[in-house]
Design a protein that fits this description.
Shape: globular
Largest sheet: 7 strands, parallel
Number of domains: 5
Bound molecules: adenosine-5'-diphosphate, zinc ion
Number of strands: 31
Low-confidence stretches: none
Structural class: alpha/beta
Helix content: 25-40%
Strand order of the largest sheet: 12-13-11-14-15-10-16
Mean pLDDT: 89
CATH topology of the largest domain: Rossmann fold
Length: about 750
């Protein structure tokens, strides 16, 4: 090792910098590399860090630099392209580099553990005459089953598989003892290269538009291009992904598929499993640290690997990555809402760019950002305008509920429509944007309303058990029988939630099952599984649910979809309200009539003449979104400008404002050196929900049409903020490209 080496290390601290160390004394024969973990002294603690950079000298005199305690790894555990992506994220999201590592990496890696991959035992046949075994095992059917299974898989059968089939234990032991099976342990799944075709089932014959989309992507497999695949619901976007992936696997490349949090349904995963003979890693929060770690290492080392995961899987190193796919790219769950507030979709585009590969962003309702990138020529727009397999688009109908009495939120025309569909043996899906029984509990005598004591918001009434719950801080308390203020005996509810409609529908249609699907009813995994099984069995039923029902599901028997209250988006305080409303209505509607039977959608509204609502219903999302983009351009709102939001909160109501005033002063003084008004500063103002979970919240908005100017300012600003005393009295955060301003 060269003398005078200085190692720049990322450490889990909130400071926006790397830390410099000297190599441990007496390690002259070892060449450190970026991506190797080290154990270092830090204050009076020991921390695990990652070498990011190696230099020949330091600004700090070497007698003041400390030595690394020891190297944890012999070779890098993080490949160079990932180091580059993490660096990029730290800079773009203005997040401390050490904390980027904490966000990106599985826990065992961060803790400095050395056993990162599980070993798995694989069973192979010994070179024994098979017929003999079959003959000998006639009266031991379970042993015979094992031998047959292993005969079919010359590459070996894992212990995991044997266990899944219930063949472990005595039968397994017998065949091993008889010498017919041998066990070997591997960290990588042994593969018989070239012996297996990539495909496990035949692909579908593509429509012309699908073929065009697949061709466009596969023609640029070795270069960066960002495609926006805009396909109406049920148009067969997934089939396009599958056939693109097939081409990548044929070249022994791997793929990364990002899906929304609730997109990781068994339905989706099965389509990938059924199509390909390739290992699939599923990365989501439900897996244990060890499992995640194992898949992470496997993806980094193996070929032909399919990684399907939610937001954080964007940080997984993948060997020979050939394409990135982001399904439902408009979905909000791709944006992390605390810590490092990154967008996995946007990082996907950066990663594809760094790697020199294509990325496909798919959606029936693309975000205005992505549509804007198509008009400006940065993305290539691919469209699927019709549903696959001959299904027709559902008919949308507005129902005026201004002067109609409602039962559990349902108008008479809707009740009649449900009745007709159930009698015909079909399924019905009802969307409500509110879980619980009712969003308001109040007293008609004195106008008392049940409020959360820790948040500026109302409490929601829930049944079973009857309780008031805050949907913002999670507070729960029992619902009072009498008004706490005037002691009136009768409290009334206002508005309806899923539990209320569920009750009404069960009373109206006693012969049919009602399945409520929201966060409360699906907290156990088996509950959701059982309900999906019931829906897929095709028996007539009514589903009542929130967003969870809106996304990705393919329910072939649903012929009627109802949206109980379409209006909330029309009056949202957020400038993105209309975009969200259009996406939600379109996605929910898209669950209707996905196979041979035509679908119908009833949208209840108090605003039947609202021009935007009518545009959406009559012309569809594309044309609606085009209008919204024009409005954003006139208002110079994102995506026509770039925004950064500083948030601060504290239990002391004056601290956030004071801190943000100081931030504003520094930002203004820094901005003086830039071209006039290149960065506009708005605020500080109190957040829409000022008090939340007992903390007072304020925010400061920075905006600019020039991304580079804005980022230069931010980088300097953040280093100054770290020094502020007032910064220590608040929790503060930076949100680059914020998606909501609350
Ligand atoms: P999307 O993801 O666009 O909503 P899906 O990929 O789920 O749509 O496709 C909807 C249905 O159409 C699925 O059942 C799928 O198997 C079927 N499908 C897709 N492409 C074709 C095709 N080319 N021919 C026949 N059926 C298709
Ligand atoms: Zn009262
Ligand atoms: Zn609360």
């Amino acid at each position: 090792m060269e003398k005078n080496l200085v190692l720049r290390v990322a450490l889990p601290t909130p400071l926006r910098r790397l830390f410099e160390y000297l190599p441990p004394p007496g390690t002259l024969d070892f060449s450190p590399l970026p991506g190797i973990r080290v154990s270092v002294p830090f204050g009076n603690r020991k921390l695990v860090g990652f070498i990011i950079d190696i230099a020949n000298r330091s600004e700090i005199p070497s007698n003041r630099l400390k030595h690394i305690e020891h190297f944890i790894d012999k070779k890098p555990v993080i490949p160079e392209d990932m180091i580059k992506l993490y660096q990029w994220s730290a800079h773009y999201y203005q997040h401390p580099i050490g904390e980027v590592y904490s966000t990106a990496l599985p826990a065992p890696l961060r803790r400095g553990e050395i056993e990162l991959r599980r070993k798995e035992i694989y069973y192979h046949l010994t070179t024994l005459d098979n017929d003999l075994a079959h003959e000998n095992l006639k009266r031991a059917p379970r042993q015979l089953e094992i031998v047959r299974l292993v005969t079919k898989h010359p590459e070996g059968v894992s212990h995991h598989t044997i266990k899944a089939l219930g063949l472990q234990g005595a039968p397994l032991k017998s065949v091993i003892d008889k010498g017919w099976l041998e066990a070997k342990s591997f960290t990588n799944q042994p593969q018989h290269k070239n012996s297996k075709s990539v495909l496990a089932e035949a692909p579908l014959t593509l429509s012309e538009e699908q073929q065009l989309a697949v061709n466009s992507v596969t023609q640029s497999l070795e270069q960066f291009t960002c495609f926006l695949l805009e396909g109406v619901t049920g148009s067969g976007k997934t089939e396009v992904y599958l056939q693109v992936i097939e081409q990548v696997l044929r070249k022994r490349g791997s793929v990364l598929v990002l899906v929304p949090e609730i997109g990781l349904t068994p339905q989706t995963v099965n389509r990938f499993k059924q199509r390909f003979n390739a290992p699939i890693a599923l990365l989501h929060s439900g897996r244990s640290d060890k499992e995640r770690m194992h898949d992470w290492m496997a993806a980094a080392e193996e070929e032909c690997y399919i990684v399907i995961g939610t937001r954080s899987s964007i940080f997984t190193p993948i060997n020979n990555l050939g394409v990135i796919i982001v399904d439902e790219e408009h979905d909000l769950s791709f944006k992390q809402q605390d810590g490092m507030r990154y967008s996995a979709r946007d990082l996907g585009v950066i990663r594809a760019h760094h790697t020199g590969i294509p990325i496909v962003l798919g959606s029936a309702t693309p975000s205005l950002e992505s549509l804007h990138n198509c008009t400006s020529g940065r993305y290539q727009h691919l469209q699927l305008s019709t549903r696959a397999g001959g299904a027709s688009q559902p008919k949308l109908l507005l129902t005026d509920i201004r002067s109609r009495p409602l039962q559990g939120g349902l108008s008479q025309p809707l009740i009649d429509a449900i009745s007709k569909q159930l009698d015909a043996g079909h399924q019905v899906l009802i969307f409500i944007n509110q879980r619980g029984f009712a969003p308001v509990l109040m007293c008609h005598q004195c106008n008392w309303i049940a409020q959360c004591s820790r948040c500026d918001t109302r409490l929601t009434l829930h049944l079973n058990p009857t309780q008031l719950r805050c949907h913002h801080c999670g507070a729960q308390r029992s619902a009072p029988r009498n008004c706490p203020d005037c002691h009136a005996v009768e409290l009334k509810t206002l508005g309806v939630g899923t539990e209320c409609s569920e009750q009404t529908i069960a009373q109206l249609f006693p012969g049919f099952p009602v399945l409520r699907i929201d966060r409360d009813s699906t907290s156990s995994k088996t509950a959701m599984k059982n309900m999906l099984a019931q829906i897929n069995s095709g028996t007539p039923c009514v589903m009542v649910g929130t967003q969870m029902l809106a996304k990705g599901h393919h329910f072939p028997k649903v012929t009627l979809v109802a949206i109980l209250e379409a209006d909330y988006g029309l009056f949202s305080a957020d400038f993105r309200g209309l975009e969200r409303m259009g996406q939600l209505i379109t996605q929910v509607s898209g669950r209707a009539g996905r196979e041979d039977k035509p679908g119908e959608v009833i949208i209840q509204t108090h605003q039947p003449d609202h021009p935007m609502l009518n545009k959406l219903i009559k012309e569809g999302y594309s044309s609606y979104a085009c209008n919204l983009l024009k409005e954003r351009e006139i208002g110079q709102l994102p995506p026509y400008c770039h925004a950064v939001l500083f948030r601060a909160e504290s239990v002391q109501h004056h601290h956030p404002g004071e801190f943000l005033e100081e931030v504003k002063d520094i930002a203004e003084s820094l901005a003086v050196h830039q071209q006039p008004s290149a960065v506009e500063i708005f605020g500080p103002i109190q957040a829409t929900m000022y008090k939340r979970a007992g903390r007072f919240r304020s925010q400061l908005l920075l905006q600019s049409t020039d991304r580079k100017t804005l980022h230069e300012l931010l980088t300097r600003l953040c280093l100054e903020i770290e020094k502020l005393k007032s910064a220590r009295k608040v929790r503060w955060s930076i949100d680059v490209d914020p998606l909501d301003c609350f």
